[in-house]
Amino acid sequence: MEISIAAVCGLCLLFCVGGFLASYIYFRRKIVDFTDEVCESAQEILRQSQGLRKGSRETALRESQGYARRWQLKNQDTLTSKAVMELDKLERILSRQAAQNQSEKEEVQKVVSEISHQLKTPVSNIRMYQDMLDDEEVTEEEKKRFEKIIRQQLDKLEFLVESLIHSSRLEQEMIHLTLVEKPIFQTLAKAVGGIAAAAEKKKIELRVDCPKSLKVVHDVKWTAEAVENILDNAVKYTPEKGEVSLLVKEGEMYTKIQIEDTGKGIAPEHYNDIFKRFYREKTSGQEEGLGLGLYLARRIISLQGGYIMVESKLGKGSRFEILLPNKKEER
User: Fold this and answer.
1) Where are the beta strands (DSSP E) in the chain?
2) Closest to 258 in 3D by CA, of 295, 230, 298, 235
3) How far apart are the first and last CA of the chain?
4) DSSP string computed for 125-183
5) Nearest to 218 by CA among 83, 292, 124, 325
């Protein structure tokens, strides 16, 4: 009986061990197969990943090339558009400038025509009163009156001729500069000489303060005319027994020519207008002029690399400052 139990126990143990071994072998095979599949899957994924990366690089390269091309075309289109816009803008500017130049030229020609026509009147009057002076029946008192009228007509004739010359210069661009280093005192003396008689007639005190030895590189003739034009305005709009002063100072970069008067003054909103061609204030109707003097003065000075500034107070007077560059001769 005991043998039978031991045999049974042995058989049971044998079956258990055998079953365990069989299970172990079975599951081991499954694990190996699973591991192989995992490895194969991993290798496939790796291959696909490498191919994908290669494809991505090629795709990215193609996309970047396409983007570069599109950017180039877009940029080219933008540059072309900008060029067209700039050309259109330039065309508009040139058209406006041409129209303005044509308008100014027509205006100058009109003024020249009007002055030429007005020249006939004083010439006719002078001839008429000259004939009347030759009449033996004319009294001494009448002779004096006729002579006074003739002088007035000569003044008017002189003014019209000067205006005609100024207008002609503007139309023909006759301002040609010759810059030389010379004492500015001599140039200013010429300018003052041109308005001295008019100032004396109105009993206006003229004061000049300028170092005789101060030399400035400038065009003598044209600078004298520019200064005289400003002085002429100062005398013209300064009341009797007023003052007009001319002061010269040398600075580091510019030599300043300051012209100051005790005239009626200029409103601040007209500081720029007074330098425009043919500009005349409404209140200046009693004074003769075409509005060319200050325009010419600024043009002459600017052609020499200088500029003109103005400061004024209504009822008190005006101050014009001409600044000419201190150009040194090269050594």
Assistant:
1) 180-183, 205-209, 215-218, 243-250, 254-261, 307-313, 317-325
2) 230
3) 144
4) HHHHHHHHHT-TT--HHHHHHHHHHHHHHHHHHHHHHHHHHHHHHHHHT------EEEE
5) 325
Is there a single domain that holds both residue 125 and residue 194? no
Q: Provide the residue type at 234 as one letter.
A: A
Q: Tokens 């180039």 appear where?
A: 72
User: Is residue 100 in some structural domain?
Assistant: no
Mean pLDDT in residue range 184-192: 93
Between 48 and 270, whose confidence is greater? 270
The CATH number of residue 222's host domain is 3.30.565.10
* Same-domain status, 185 and 275: yes
Residue 197 within a domain = yes
**How many domains does the structure of the chain reveal?**
3
Which tokens in the block code for residue 75?
A: 């940029």
Instruction: Give a yes or no: residue 300 inside a domain.
Output: yes
Last residue of a domain, one of 10, 27, 42: 42
Positive or negative CA dihedral for 133, 137, 140, 144? negative
At 177, give phi and psi (nearest 5°).
Answer: -95, 145
For 274-319, how does the pLDDT look when each residue is reduced to its tens digit (9 = 90+)?
Answer: 888 767 666 555 555 567 788 888 988 998 999 999 999 998 999 9
pTM: 0.55
Give dist(CA 214, CA 251) in Å, integer.
Answer: 11
What CA–CA distances, in Å, run from 58 to 52, 55, 64?
Answer: 10, 5, 10
Q: Based on the domain organization, do 316 and 282 belong to the same domain?
A: yes
Question: Do 146 and 23 fall within a single domain?
Answer: no
